[in-house]
Write a structure and sequence with these properties.
Blueprint lengths: L1 H10 L9 H6 L5 E7 L2 E8 L4 E6 L13 H5 L3 E6 L18 H14 L5 E6 L1 H12 L4 E7 L10 H4 L6 H8 L2 H10 L10 H11 L4 H13 L3 H7 L8 E6 L8 H9 L3 E6 L6 H4 L1 H13 L1
Parallel strand pairs: 3-4, 3-5, 5-6, 6-7, 7-8
Antiparallel strand pairs: 1-2, 2-4
Helix pairs in contact: 1-8, 4-5
Length: 305
């Protein structure tokens, strides 16, 4: 799990880069921006395409709706309605000041409320990394609402956490560290750590991720969500969630993932009875960014069979 933590640490150390008006528009060209409310908490989401079937995309920790930039059009153009949110603490979604609101279970509960608030009774749920864990909890607790499940390099099993990461549980230290570390180098390295081919991440991409993390309350939200993630009981998650999933599931994994071991993909495939696995060659932790054509093709084929 230390590489997940390292990635998060690097992401929150993004440089203070200015966004041009053109770049700011790019944050919202992925789809139509909308807002809904769950228990008076505002949630920002985007939609693209029209169709009888809906695909809902859940980004990972340290990510945002922009993570799906390379596959939204590919899915929407095939006759699907595509919906992708910014989870609690991210982008234009509210950032509660109570750190207890950032547990995996509470964010998964909020996702259920989100689905109800926008009247989605049944959809294909696609989750990347941390978003995969949310998707699995949702599919297990509300199988009637999850037509199919797609897990992309999903958070799933326990990983070792080194001492320098556990230090983040101390007060004040995380924020001090985030603001004194060399900004541009860490940003460049952190964002590109999620892909195998570093050339797919542009300076524009880094600017947009920086804009998200600079929003008021974003760093606190990320720290709190991360601290809760460390407390996840992986054995319980496997026993009470993963092994009880009955939804047809497609597991997609980058064979060069440096964040979550590729071996976890095979374990996950063995634990979810109605699952299939696609390993994408020469690809890191975010296949939807790095290999969008292969990911889109796999998702569409899975949905249609």
């Amino acid at each position: 799990m230390y590489k997940i933590w390292l990635t998060i640490l690097l992401l929150v150390s993004l440089p203070t880069l200015s966004l041009s008006a053109k770049d700011k528009c790019l944050m919202y060209k992925l789809g139509e921006e909308k807002f809904t409310y769950v228990d008076k908490e505002k949630i920002q989401y985007f939609t693209k395409g029209e169709g009888e079937e809906t695909i809902v995309l859940l980004h990972g920790l340290g990510g945002n709706a922009y993570d799906w930039r390379n596959i939204v059009d590919r899915l929407a153009s095939q006759g699907f309605r595509v919906i992708f949110w910014n989870m609690r603490g991210v982008g234009g979604t509210d950032k509660p000041k109570n750190k207890e609101d950032y547990s995996l279970k509470k964010i998964a509960d909020q996702f259920y409320g989100f689905m109800k608030s926008i009247n989605i009774r049944r959809a294909v749920i696609v989750g990347s990394s941390y978003g995969g864990a949310i998707a699995m909890i949702f599919a297990k607790e509300h199988p009637q609402m999850a037509k199919k499940l797609v897990l992309i390099d999903s958070l799933c099993y326990e990983q070792e956490i080194p001492f320098y990461i556990s230090v983040l549980n101390f007060p004040i230290i995380p924020k001090i560290g985030f603001f004194v570390l060399p900004k541009y180098y860490l940003a460049r390295h952190g964002v590109r750590l999620m892909v195998y081919n570093k050339k797919v991440i542009s300076r524009k991409d880094i600017k947009i991720y920086a804009q998200y993390i600079k929003l008021p309350g974003a760093i606190d939200a990320l720290i709190w969500t991360t601290k809760h993630m460390v407390k996840i009981d992986a054995k319980e998650l496997r026993k009470e969630v993963i092994k009880k999933i009955i939804t047809p599931t497609l597991i997609i994994w980058g064979d060069k993932d440096e964040i979550i071991p590729r071996d976890f993909a095979y374990r996950l495939h063995a634990d979810i009875e109605r699952s299939s696995l696609i390993m994408i060659p020469e690809c890191g932790h975010n296949p939807q960014v790095e290999k969008p054509k292969a990911v889109s093709k796999a998702i569409l084929k899975f949905i249609r069979k």
